Amino acid sequence: xxxxxxxxxxxxxxxxxxxxxxxxxxxxxxxxxxxxxxxxxxxxxxxxxxxxxxxxxxxxxxxxxxxxxxxxxxxxxxxxxxxxxxxxxxxxxxxxxxxxxxxxxxxxxxxxxxxxxxxxxxxxxxxxxxxxxxxxxxxxxxxxxxxxxxxxxxxxxxxxxxxxxxxxxxxxxxxxxxxxxxxxxxxxxxxxxxxxxxxxxxxxxxxxxxxxxxxxxxxxxxxxxxxxxxxxxxxxxxxxxxxxxxxxxxxxxxxxxxxxxxxxxxxxxxxxxxxxxxxxxxxxxxxxxxxxxxxxxxxxxxxxxxxxxxxxxxxxxxxxxxxxxxxxxxxxxxxxxxxxxxxxxxxxxxxxxxxxxxxxxxxxxxxxxxxxxxxxxxxxxxxxxxxxxxxxxxxxxxxxxxxxxxxxxxxxxxxxxxxxxxxxxxxxxxxxxxxxxxxxxxxxxxxxxxxxxxxxxxxxxxxxxxxxxxxxxxxxxxxxxxxxxxxxxxxxxxxxxxxxxxxxxxxxxxxxxxxxxxxxxxxxxxxxxxxxxxxxxxxxxx
Amino acid sequence: xxxxxxxxxxxxxxxxxxxxxxxxxxxxxxxxxxxxxxxxxxxxxxxxxxxxxxxxxxxxxxxxxxxxxxxxxxxxxxxxxxxxxxxxxxxxxxxxxxxxxxxxxxxxxxxxxxxxxxxxxxxxxxxxxxxxxxxxxxxxxxxxxxxxxxxxxxxxxxxxxxxxxxxxxxxxxxxxxxxxxxxxxxxxxxxxxxxxxxxxxxxxxxxxxxxxxxxxxxxxxxxxxxxxxxxxxxxxxxxxxxxxxxxxxxxxxxxxxxxxxxxxxxxxxxxxxxxxxxxxxxxxxxxxxxxxxxxxxxxxxxxxxxxxxxxxxxxxxxxxxxxxxxxxxxxxxxxxxxxxxxxxxxxxxxxxxxxxxxxxxxxxxxxxxxxxxxxxxxxxxxx
Lengths: 542, 383
Fold this sequence. Notes:
The complex is a heterodimer.
Chain A: E1 37-41, E2 47-51, E3 57-59, H1 67-72, H2 81-84, H3 90-96, E4 103-108, H4 110-119, H5 124-138, E5 143-146, H6 148-172, E6 178-179, H7 184-193, H8 207-223, E7 230-235, H9 240-245, E8 262-264, H10 266-275, H11 292-298, H12 322-337, E9 347-353, E10 359-366, E11 369-378, H13 380-391, H14 408-423, E12 447-451, H15 472-485, H16 495-511, H17 516-520, H18 533-539
Helix pairs in contact in A: 4-5, 4-15, 6-8, 6-12
Chain B: E1 3-8, E2 15-20, E3 26-31, E4 36-40, E5 49-53, E6 61-66, E7 85-90, E8 95-100, H1 109-114, H2 116-119, E9 127-133, E10 140-145, E11 151-156, E12 161-165, E13 175-180, E14 187-192, E15 199-203, E16 208-213, E17 220-226, E18 233-238, E19 250-257, E20 262-268, H3 269-273, H4 283-287, E21 293-298, E22 307-312, E23 319-323, E24 328-334, E25 337-344, E26 353-360, E27 366-372, E28 377-381
Antiparallel strand pairs in B: 1-28, 2-3, 3-4, 4-5, 6-7, 7-8, 8-9, 10-11, 11-12, 12-13, 14-15, 15-16, 16-17, 18-19, 19-20, 20-21, 22-23, 23-24, 24-25, 26-27, 27-28
């Protein structure tokens, strides 16, 4: 992608389209019969509405667009920062911090920690200590937690989901990959532009959302305060996470609280610190000299499960390892289900590279036979190719006739080429590889982990960009290195943790009367495209 | 002097674009009337209509481009019948790909090859829709094939340039291999270098951007920005290396704009070919294959209104420009200096001229073809 992203550029990699369709709702019904009016601008630049009938002057208020409107829209006016993310700016956060009625809690993602560590040339240990110092002692937050619990629950639920889906599709002979919905950029793009893929999306929520729900519930119980008095800030690698936090829960649009109130990216955190150097410093002397593990525990809510692992990392891709963990958990699932048939030493995972570095497949083989596969797919161009293939699935159904919709000219050309190939070879002037057994077929995988940003979340739109003396590529490698330094507590090698967490989840839902769906699942809605040319032109920015 | 050979009343509404097949005497047109027409470039046969491509796009067709033959124009594959194919880009945000069926098998293959110019341009050939490419958010303004016909570039009001890859023999699948977000505004034109994989895009943001593939990982990125125009850049074209005045050490580009100028830019190729694994070069330069572009000159002024299109003849090295003032201006390079060779007024009467190309008739003479707001396609002889 372009190396010309500026620090203030709030665009993520999938850019929104140009038309905003927030419906123009009249301020009040009885005024709709006002008759013909004229709009004028007074000498101070304020818009006035003057009735042509009785010359009555009315001051007009500017149209407001809130964050949840943004999700209802088919596209927005580029990165009109003020409009879209007004509630999510760091200034808003600082304003909100004035409200001493509220309790402030913060969760921080692994990629953000890696980005900050790389930017300040610190180790993960050092950055974690400084962040706790900053949020707890300077910004006066009450709790700080890593998103590890949310991510592990998300990974476990997603693997369960895929395994079920795989079982069902083999019973019904329907094969279609399950697509991840962890990336809000991808989800919003699918809802707005390619609704035909929505039926393939998994409904499992992202670590951010699951963490938010648990954090607010446990803090609310511990302090005996209602959830709406808790303000949850989440530090995430991209701006689309702000939009994800504003998504209403299914059937509960009237709920009085959101699981996440504000999302800030590492970029914005840096700007906050630069703008308020006198009040807040990341590199301030530490107020506490405790071990990191103790600090993790001290500032987590009391009943946080497996708190010693609450900031730990997971194996697989830097976006959370969804594709990888599914295969590992599936492997364990098979061994547990049938230990006679499946022995651990005969499993092997093979990696098949795709057309570019942002797409690859992982195949789980048992004794050299393919039993499961997942694909990691990053970046807009690969998403384009995926949605195109899903629109016209060309897949042979096993045990039946092959239904292939193919261009009739292609068949003729192929035949002609084969004929002439036997005579004299036709040199290919392209770099296209011949189709071998090693080619990736997105339609055949069980699961596709989709991230909108090239290289995945580690290179999110809100991550801190490379300093001028380091190339973008080298910088990403550095950040990935920091990410890998985060202590890993791998689900596949710690089955006891998988069981403990699942048990805990059930207990949590029961004791707090929170439906499992409310904790774990989200929903999708096709967004209508604007068809009214006038409305489109109104919002269009040339 | 430029003289009108033929005025074809091709369309019932504005004609936006024309494209000539590089080796066959075929001409394609694009219009607001949602159709594309294909004519034979034959004066002796009076430019007959070969085919009308319709009922596909829902809005204006803005750009058409013929695919080069397999192997490229300079080194086409021998003993191989290359069927012509056309891409057309529309305001409805899609690109359609058209081709003809194989000629009947009754005639001997060798005979077909010997007479391909006639057989492949026969009006009895049925031009079929082969594929529709979707992806752009909104109106597509321009499309272009690369020199070997395996890459198709498209640009749109959505400010992006997309590069699609396909198999040039079968045109079976078009895969998106890059989406380039570098421009700040509507992109009016994309054009490939005729001899190598170098792409230029012209935009409403007053700049031209150059794109290339990275050496290591095949990713496409912007390697140069040409600043200088004071208005929308409507069109640009690379110099063909066969141009008699071409300097093999330079890559040159001509561009036209709202600012009424025709500008020439150049980049020295030596820097690009330089061996770059010296240890003392910091890694940011090693990975960055940036090109250094300079504005070489501004051609003598002729247009008093926005200039919409330009083309550079591979045969003679002359440049032709057209625009809102309906003038057709031909420039030539004499000992390194550019002079105006001829100005034709009212090329399409009082109507704007949207597109211009150099083309070759079946008798090998070079002509100029223009498309105007009057819906006409005019063919002009040159000396």
